[in-house]
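Predict the structure of Peptidase M24 domain-containing protein.
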Amino acid sequence: MPSEEIDWVARQVIRDAGYGEYFIHRTGHGIGVTTHEPPYLVAGEKQPLVPGMCFSIEPGIYLPGRFGVRLEDIVTGTEDGGRRLNHTEHALAVVAQAVFGRVRS
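Done. Here is the predicted structure for Peptidase M24 domain-containing protein.
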């Protein structure tokens, strides 16, 4: 599968939820010797994702003046798709709102 297809799928989900204009960066990137390296999961990136590759999937939305959210999963390609390497929960917890470096309740 070309790298750009992951980006397309993530953008479609976010667009369908009404937040497309707030998704302003690539969906992810390869992980290897350095943290951010090809292939980049972005429109126009044709490099195929193949078994054994490790990459991040980290879509996010940013609503100006309100908040932003971005979750990052690390995935390795397998013969039948992919396998998540991090096993943390995806739970939303609002703990406080920071304004200019100060916490506001």
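The CA atoms of residues 51 and 81 lie 8 Å apart.
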